[in-house]
């Protein structure tokens, strides 16, 4: 598969470029390597999560419990490590991933067996996972002073540093897991029959079954995968902020969903691109981080994201309408 | 006559095969019941390689059930399926696939967001249990299968952008890629234009030559005769018999299928000869049709025939407010009107029965009552407060069911549970409640069995006798010649010929129309009709001399 930038992704790139140019005109301080490095660092968590979400949405499902899984996985792993006395961030990550994967597999089973919309099921499990954690494990906040120093060391580690205008700035090491996850997701989607099967059930589950695909296994993989990524993303996040709160992250899942949708991922399944999903998340973080350069308060963030989301969906719907009008089709499709 | 059919039941199947064709699948004493309903009753049947075998029968006669038993979706209550010499008392879908049995369902089972190539190759990759995907191999598989059927398609095209005919061929190639030896095709030609049908039938006979057993299910009897070698007729879950198709004709086949004589009544306009009430003047829409002028009188059933892109569907949509013309006039009762939306079309007394009744004509998940009254909701509301009156809805639905003889247990039944013919009657009922003056029917009998077909014709003719004007769009020439008193021939966006009542009396009009829609050349078509007339004359004189 040759790497070709599709039209929708080209438009997103153009929007990003135009927006950056506009911000730079208003506030030249924006054009700084510092801004870019900061963007990469803060968006790492959601870039990882959106890869899992993309796979889920390709399968024709949705998962809004991933932030809960990220929180519960990283919280429980931290709590466990504190109990036992382990100190290394290298233990935190696999531990959190394991816990979150189990939660993801639960989602897969429920979606497959109950045959209810995945949105409703994961809305339920989101609260279930969080509630279980709060009642069984506790709601204590682990602050920077209590956490093992290796956490913050990993969270603030850099690959290299550049002497910038305002002192040295570095590229976060969390870009490495992000790149690995992106490449791995690309490989799964385009290079394995597993990935093609997931796309197939997202397109038309019955047809996929007729060809011999097994939706249960494919779902177990997809929901397990986003679970594992949630554990990873949650661990990176707590290391970056160097604190574990029992109620953070939850509530931010819809921004990641918005990113995927802005990037052209279809809500009805079977269609979506890696590059698009990345750009969708980048746009959201770009808006978030540039408010300060524009002298706007944080409350403008939702407003901007809302506008981009509505515009991008309108654009897709309009394209569909133009195509249908040309072919004199009058059916309503929810794509 | 019934007795004659009964003897056929016991008649030898075409066993003593002179060509020595290999036996691919044999069904022995297959019985399948659903509750009290016997869907298949002791069916014995053989499918042979190198033969096109048609399964004919009305809806619910058991032909689709048999396909599902052989492909492993249903488990038979009794009986054996023999495939490649192996006996199965029941077969799983995977076993069936491994034995080379492939079914192309009406929905085609394709993946809209994948390319044509991947759609072709994915079944084979899955079947051979590949773990990794090798894209060059996918294109190789796709190209190989396409060359096998001698067709060229854009392999990288996303499937949802492709035409229905391309999708159909893609589905065939997928089956071939999975080493199909026995290929079932369920109503493959329903959504195709006549030119695409020709291409598909050519592909089918190509596959037959390469030794495949092809089993073809179709309601279109002319195609059955054109392509099949053997026809097996089903009725009420029983097999009526196997017939070499050269021994059958349309009349006999429909008699076997329905158990009664069916002949389509010929329409004769009886309305008083008053001037037209709808007139189209020089209607144009760029790229679709141009200079369309047509007058419609009360009681006219005007047939419209032409290939895809000939402009007839586009014109019909314009009359219903779904495709605004660029220029020209539409006059109703002598006054120019602008039909900008379906609502204004309905206000002017125009109704449209769409071609795709499942998507555009019905709410399949809603009751008959809801569907029949969907176009007249406002009239069912109480006059004072405007609340919806469910009693009125019910009585309107009950009246419609009676009037159109819709076969159902109750008006609350979901329309999706009805047979195709009864579904179409629900759509008719819905529009009749709006009391239209002009009723546009776009291929009203697609995928409908013969019995229901003639009922729909009766309804249409009755409406015309009562003074309704009907515009009948159809690909079936016979449908038009028996129901219409005028036929407009469309070609490249123009009406190249409007045949009036007298001209339709000529038995060779069919030759003329077929030549005209294909070539667009009136002179050529007239020559063809003349030749046919001369040929017929020679034959009759020869027959006389022979005596």
Question: Can you tell me about this structure?
Answer:
The complex is a heterodimer of chains A (335) and B (547). With 335 residues, chain A is mostly helical. Chain A contains 13 helices and two strands. Mean pLDDT of chain A is 86; it is low at 331-335. Chain A has helices at residues 7-26, 33-58, 66-84, 89-114, 118-137, 149-156, 175-191, 193-203, 205-210, 215-241, 253-262, 274-294, 300-326, and strands at 158-164, 167-172. In chain A, 71% of the residues lie in helices and 4% in strands. In chain B, α4 (116-127) runs parallel beside α6 and α5 crosses α6 (164-177). The longest helix of chain B is centred in the C-terminal third of the chain and has 25 residues, at 522-546. Residues 1-16 of chain B have low confidence and may be disordered. Chain B is an alpha/beta fold and 547 residues long. Chain B starts with a helix and ends with a helix. Chain B is built from 20 helices and 20 strands. In chain B, the strands form four sheets. Chain B has a six-stranded mixed sheet, with helices on both faces. Chain B has four domains: 2-100 and 181-258, 3-Layer(aba) Sandwich (Rossmann fold), CATH 3.40.50; 107-180, no CATH class; 275-347 and 436-505, 3-Layer(aba) Sandwich (Rossmann fold), CATH 3.40.50; 350-434, P-loop containing nucleotide triphosphate hydrolases (Rossmann fold, 3-Layer(aba) Sandwich). The interface between A and B is medium-sized, with 27 and 28 residues.
| Order of strands across the main sheet of chain A | 1-2
Count interface residues per chain for the largest interface.
A-B, 27 and 28 residues
How many β-strands of chain A, per DSSP? 2
Helix content of chain A: over 70%
Number of domain modules of chain A: 1
Q: What is the end-to-end distance of chain A?
A: 24 Å
Low-confidence stretches of chain A: 331-335
Spatial order of the strands forming the largest sheet of chain B: 6-7-8-3-9-10
Q: Taking all residues together, what is the mean pLDDT of chain A?
A: 86
Major β-sheet of chain B, in short?
Answer: 6 strands, mixed
Overall structural domain count of chain B: 4
Topology, number of strands of chain B: 20
